[in-house]
């Protein structure tokens, strides 16, 4: 479950960046620390990171957009990830995903109006033998059909 955190300040972000500069290749550790601290990597952090590492803002943005676990806006209190890989699709995962999106009234990467749930696609949870699979707040669940998805969503307030 994600937590509500205070709005990021430039000084706080600079302190987080500074705490990781001793590392070799500090970009990913910096991004992870900022996201852990705020629940996302706010746009204000991008130029600060770029300046501290003497790289371009485009490079920071490229890393942020390449790794799907980084967010530029906060997620809901709960995150539901639904596998979109071939094995899960072959076992009915598309119908499960469509059902969840319709029930929540959101598109992929969307958050419900009440802020309870963010739903995201993921491309393989490693549970291919128990497809279709989903992940709720970091807990992997296999053999998910629409009824089980309804139970999972009810459990997170959706």
Evaluate the radius of gyration. Answer: 18 Å
| First and last CA, distance | 14 Å
> Structural class of the helices, strands and pairings?
alpha+beta
Number of domains: 2
CATH class label of the largest domain: Alpha Beta
Task: Based on the coordinates given, report the CATH architecture of the largest domain.
Answer: 3-Layer(aba) Sandwich
**SS field, number of helical segments:** 7
Tell me the total number of β-strands. 4
Principal-axis shape? elongated
Task: Give a structural overview.
Its cofactor is [2Fe-2S] cluster. It is a single chain. The protein is an alpha+beta fold and 158 residues long. It folds into two domains: 10-66, no CATH class; 78-155, Glutaredoxin (3-Layer(aba) Sandwich), CATH 3.40.30. It has helices spanning 10-18, 27-38, 45-53, 57-66, 86-90, 93-104, 146-155; strands spanning 78-83, 117-122, 134-136, 139-141. The chain has a four-stranded mixed β-sheet with strand order 2-1-3-4, with helices on one face. Strand 3 and strand 4 (139-141) form a beta hairpin. Helix 3 crosses helix 4 and helix 6 (93-104) packs parallel to helix 7 (146-155). The mean pLDDT is 94.
Summarize the topology.
Elements: H1 10-18, H2 27-38, H3 45-53, H4 57-66, E1 78-83, H5 86-90, H6 93-104, E2 117-122, E3 134-136, E4 139-141, H7 146-155
Parallel strand pairs: 1-2
Antiparallel strand pairs: 1-3, 3-4
Helix pairs in contact: 1-3, 3-4, 6-7
């Amino acid at each position: 479950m994600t937590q509500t955190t205070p709005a990021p300040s430039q000084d706080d972000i600079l302190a987080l960046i500074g705490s990781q500069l001793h590392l070799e290749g500090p970009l990913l550790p910096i991004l992870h620390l900022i996201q852990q601290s705020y629940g996302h990597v706010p746009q204000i952090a991008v130029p600060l990171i770029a300046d501290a590492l003497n790289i371009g803002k485009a490079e920071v943005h490229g890393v942020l957009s390449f790794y799907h676990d980084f967010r530029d806006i906060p997620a809901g209190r709960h995150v539901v990830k639904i596998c979109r890989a071939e094995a899960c699709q072959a076992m009915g995962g598309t119908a499960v995903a469509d059902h969840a999106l319709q029930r929540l009234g959101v598109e992929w990467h969307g958050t419900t109006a009440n802020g309870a749930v963010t739903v995201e696609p993921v491309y393989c949870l490693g549970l291919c033998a128990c497809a279709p699979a989903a992940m709720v707040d970091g807990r992997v669940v296999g053999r998910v059909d629409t009824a089980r998805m309804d139970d999972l969503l009810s459990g997170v307030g959706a």
